[in-house]
Amino acid sequence: MESTEILTRLAGYGISPVSIEHRNTVWIKLVYEKNDTITDLVKTLAGRRWSNTHKAWLIPRKKSLLEELVTKLDAKIPHAKLLPLPYWFADYERELKLRAYSHNTKKNYSNNILIFARYFKGSNLAELTKADVEKFLERMHDERHYSPSSMNGMLNAVKFLYEKVWNMPQVVYKVSRSKMPKQLPKFFQQNELERIFATVENVKHKVILYMAYSAGLRVSEVCRLKLTDVLRQTMTLRIEAAKGKKDRMVMLSPKLLELLEVYYKRYRPKYWLFEGPTGEPYSTRSAQLIFHRAKAAAHVSRKGSIHSLRHSFATHLLESGIDVRIIQELLGHKDIRTTLLYAHTTDVSKRRINSPLDKLKI
């Protein structure tokens, strides 16, 4: 089954799968109203676990498990009891497509707006008020323990419906966003990275991790690299249509290029630099698992995911004296304030400042 078909069929049972990171592992959280039949079927899935933190069932992030759940639901629950998709849902997905939103954004928006629609089932959404939307968000926070990020993601999906699809911005215009906690980026010390990289023997896996760290790439950017994006003559990597639909150029490490040549001779990729089993781009989930396994094998206890390699790249450049605006360009940050967060992860700038006491002749 295609991913969109799985999501649509799960939506018919009132289930929305949401990707989350829990205890340094990526999971799928199954969001649905209390239903003993669905819960009994979820309990039969391999690797499932109940999370008291999220107050929901979590399953490993595998497409096969979602397909298995759909098959079991089809066999157990009569189709007459399926929840119909809202009449406007096709328009909603069409508008997302026309605006060229990324695959992940479209999936998250569609999941969230279906949760919103199920909550108000039997009501005319076009007649809801700002107070109704705020009450819904409060329930997501109090009963489903949504994080500030998840709350804002939900509000984005709802705003898209009213503002872009229905041209009714007055309903959600003044709904406040959740205040995001000011968390510093998680990064690894260089000796920790040396230990992590040393545990990886598979050449393909090692190149993937080297690529993420050496150029500060997001895992999605690593997995979407094409052979033609490696520019040997200029020793650069071309990152196309990254976050925000922006292209950028980053450095190509000579040490990475040396390993890339070994990798290419062994695997002979045809189009994507890192190919999956059937020639599609390597999955971000697989790349994340590579890092988690290497980190565990290296006995590195510091918290952080493969995305922390990007944070480590920025922090280590800053520590070596590279100007923060150059780091901003390499990371593809639109706002310098995002990059300046890395200044708080290191005390290198503080060590270079002389106290005014030292200037006194005493």
Number of E strands: 7
Alpha carbon gyration radius: 23 Å
Order of helices and strands: HEEHEEHHHHHHHHEEEHHHHHH
Biggest sheet, open or closed, and with what strands and sense? 4 strands, antiparallel
User: Total number of helical segments?
Assistant: 16
How would you briefly describe this protein structure?
This protein has 362 residues and is α+β, with helices and mostly antiparallel strands.
Furnish the topology, listing elements before pairings.
Layout: H1 3-12, E1 16-22, E2 25-31, H2 36-42, E3 49-51, E4 56-60, H3 63-76, H4 89-98, H5 103-119, H6 130-144, H7 148-165, H8 190-198, H9 203-215, H10 219-223, E5 230-231, E6 236-239, E7 248-251, H11 254-267, H12 284-297, H13 307-319, H14 324-331, H15 336-340, H16 348-351
Antiparallel strand pairs: 1-2, 2-4, 3-4, 5-6, 6-7
